[in-house]
Every structure is written in C-alpha cells, then in structure tokens.
C-alpha cells in the first residue's frame, strides 16, 4: 500500500474537570475528534470518539504536536504564569491510521 500515512491522537490518561463545566467529553472513546482551546473562557473543550475514522487526522508528528500544544488566545497564561495549553493535561500517543 502506498500513499501518505496519517496520525490520530489518542488520550491515555483520565479526564480533567475544571470548574463547573468539564473540559473533555469522553462519552465516545479515547481518540481526539475536535478541540477548541478558547472554549469556556480559555479553559478549552475537547471531544473524543472511539471511531478512528472520526478522529482528528494529522499529516506529520510536527503537525500533531502543534495541535496538542495550542495555547488559548482567550486566556494565554495560567494563574501560575505558565502557558495555558488545556489539551496538554492529557498524556497522548499518536497512532498511524
């Protein structure tokens, strides 16, 4: 089989709840389907799926890491002075699909 291989991000840690709204929706599985770092006033929101066909796809590990490390534009700095990158609350692996 030839052609470009894609990567999918898979969360391998538990969920993180931040305030009254949960950060992530794990209703469907471990694969990242979508992510908005600016949702919930910069606390972010991620949706997950168990269907790899619905998972967010990346063309390279660099592209996947850039997605995972996105900083919120609404709240770019956490109260502790570090960059606010909500998705990095998860340990992730990348799978070839």
Characterization of the model:
The chain is elongated. The longest helix is centred in the middle third of the chain and has 8 residues, at 61-68. Helix content is 12%, strand content 30%. It has a 3-stranded antiparallel sheet. A 3-stranded mixed sheet has the order 4-6-5, with no helix packed on it. The protein has one domain (21-92). It is built from 2 helices and 8 strands. The chain has helices at 39-42, 61-68, and strands spanning 7-11, 17-18, 21-22, 24-25, 31-36, 45-49, 57-58, 92-96. The model is unreliable at 12-22 (pLDDT under 50). It is α+β, with helices and mostly antiparallel strands and 97 residues long.
Chart the SSEs and their pairings.
Elements: E1 7-11, E2 17-18, E3 21-22, E4 24-25, E5 31-36, H1 39-42, E6 45-49, E7 57-58, H2 61-68, E8 92-96
Parallel strand pairs: 4-6
Antiparallel strand pairs: 1-7, 1-8, 2-3, 5-6
Report the β-strand fraction as a percent range. 25-35%
Number of strands: 8
Helix and strand element order: EEEEEHEEHE
How far apart the termini lie comes to: 12 Å
* Alpha-carbon Rg, integer: 14 Å
Largest sheet, in brief, is: 3 strands, antiparallel
Task: Provide tags for this entry.
3-stranded antiparallel beta sheet, 97 residues, 3-stranded mixed beta sheet, alpha+beta, elongated, 8 strands
Short description:
By secondary structure, the chain is α+β, with helices and mostly antiparallel strands. It has one domain (21-92).
